[in-house]
Amino acid sequence: MDLPGKPISHIFELEEIEDMISNGTYESLFEVHRDAGIPQKNPYGDLKKVIDSVPVFGFNSGRYDINICKNELFTAIGAKNITSVIKNPSYMCISTRNYKFLDMTNYVPAGTSYDKYLKTYIGGCKCEDSSRCICGLRKGVFPYEYITSFDVLNETKLPPKSAFYSDLRESDIKDEDYGFVKFAWEHHEMKTLKDLLVWCNNLDVEPFVSAIQAQRELFKKFDLDMFVDGVSLPGLSEKVMYQSCFKGLKKPKKVPGAPVEFPLDRFNGYEAQDTKAGRDFNMSITHLNQLLRKQLYTCYHCFCKLDVKNASADRINNSIGHIDGNIMMSCIACNVARKDMSPAAFRYQKMIEHNSDKLVYSIDKEEKEIYHKMKANIAGGPSIIFNRFAKRNETTIRGGKLCKKIIGYFVDFVTRRRSFELS
User: Fold this and answer.
1) Omega of the bond prior to 89 within 30 degrees of 0, cis?
2) Are 103 and 118 in the same domain?
């Protein structure tokens, strides 16, 4: 192997690597690759892509604000190569080379108001008199419809309460709200309506940014960046779930089987199989018996006990024949199921199957007991979900009764009904 920037210390022939895999020194070529110190892909390109993209946040902006101003906005900033994620009728994300427009309502439970979002992450106003709030957590008030030109922003007096009337809502502001504006005008020594506008905008933005930072820190505990790893709360939650359920997986317990000799008729069958397929055959029954002893008479993949009925010679590389060094001992079921999957990947798949129950209750381990009770006794369609794998005359429901027939139904995203039947 030629490692960039390093002198060649040893040249491994392919046969040497295959021998190291077959004798158990390495699980796969990937482990050889890793131990050799071959440098991984340079992450600079992906990192630069993230750094160059500035996130722009809004609250409920995907449904309203962005829809209204997106064309003019993208023209003004000269945006090209615009991509978007749409959840009708709202934009979840609009991305350009330099900006990523995100709606924070996608990162909170449905129905969460802006006020509730702020209270969740930074708390609410704690001032004794909300009309004299100085903590910056009370929403400001501004006479938007009073502004008919930029010149109006230069006015040096606070407009009367009637100037705050909203044609959109067809209502005046409350006396308490107007009193709050009067207090802010004097407390912050405002000189013009422009000062009031800046104050009002800051009350919208600063608490919002603080809440976003607090929420982002929460997801950092799971090694997730909210705005890189997902565009919604369900997407991030799914990643947290997979982080939790795939930690601490346990291998099936390896219990040695009884000593057994590999059946000669099955050995002869492999020779006939290779001859028919035009593959080389160079395997000895002595080698198979040695492998059986080395593996403690258990399957290489699922660790079940091997006997004369289920023992098989599983080829590591299925493109070549049964040759000493290209064989591992497995049960017939695993040999057939693995097909061309790598041994390491298939063994991991068997470990996932062994931990299938844990993958369901891993988020809340306190529910483990009730989960198993429900799985053992639930009937009908939900039983298929709880059992995940169902087989006629093998899977049990209703407290141990065997299923005689299994039919499952589901509706896909275009509402077409599909069904499957196991027999």
Assistant:
1) yes
2) no
Is residue 207 within 8 Å of residue 137, measured between CB atoms? yes
First to last CA, the chain: 51
Q: Which residues contact 46 (CB under 8 A, 6 or more apart)?
A: none
Please tell me the predicted confidence (pLDDT) of residue 417: 34
Q: Which residues of the chain have pLDDT under 50?
A: 1-6, 363, 409-423
Report if residue 26 sits inside a domain. Answer: no
Residue 303, domain CATH: 3.30.40.220
Pair 96, 80: CB distance under 8 Å? yes
Decide: 115 and 153 in contact? Cβ < 8 Å.
no
- Together in a domain, 152 and 74: no
Q: Say what the pLDDT of residue 397 is.
A: 65
Task: Decide: residue 358, CB within 10 A, 0-12 exposed, 13-18 middle, 19+ buried.
Answer: middle
Residue 61: predicted pLDDT: 87
Alpha-helical (H) ranges within 62-192 are 65-76, 114-122, 175-187
Residue 306 lies in a domain: yes
Q: What's the pLDDT score for residue 27?
A: 62
Residues 272 and 312 in one domain: yes
Exposed/middle/buried for 357, CB within 10 Å: 0-12, 13-18, 19+?
Answer: middle
Residue 13 within a domain: no
- Give me the pLDDT at residue 24, please: 67
Coil/strand/helix, residue 81: coil
At residue 96, the pLDDT reads 83
| Domain containing residue 214 | 114-230
Residues 6+ apart with CB under 8 A from 297: 256, 257, 258, 259, 260, 305, 306, 307
DSSP string, 319-357: TS-SBTTSEEEEEHHHHHHHTTS-HHHHHHHHHHHHTHH
Looking at the 3D structure of the chain, how many domains does it have? 4
Residue at a domain's end among 107, 134, 158: 107
- One domain, residues 103 and 138: no
